[in-house]
Please model this.
Amino acid sequence: MGRISPTGAIQVRTVALDDLVSSGQLPVPDYIKVDVEGTEMSVLSGAKSTLERFHPTLFLAVHTKEINRQCCRFLRALDYQLTAIDGAAVEECDELLAWVPRPKSGAEPEHD
Model:
C-alpha cells in the first residue's frame, strides 16, 4: 500500500509496472507518461525491467532539480537519450522526453 502524500491518511494500492507486464495483465507499452508529483523514482524503479527489455519512450514530468538529476542518471544507465520538452537544458527542465535509439530498418544492430 502507498499513500497519496507522505503524511497523508489515505492509503492507495500500488503495483509495479514490471509486475503487470510480466504477468501479462498489461501489454508491453510503447510509450509511458509519468507525472506523479515527486515519486518519479519509485515509478521508474517499478518499471526497470520493462525499460531495460523493451525501451518504451517516456514522457516524464519532474518536480525538483534533485528528482531531475536522479531520473536522468537512472535513465542514462539504461541507455536512454534525453531531451527537454520545454526547451530548457535537460538538467534544468521540468519535462523530459526519453528514448532509446533504434537501429534503422534493415540495418544490422550494433554489437559490442
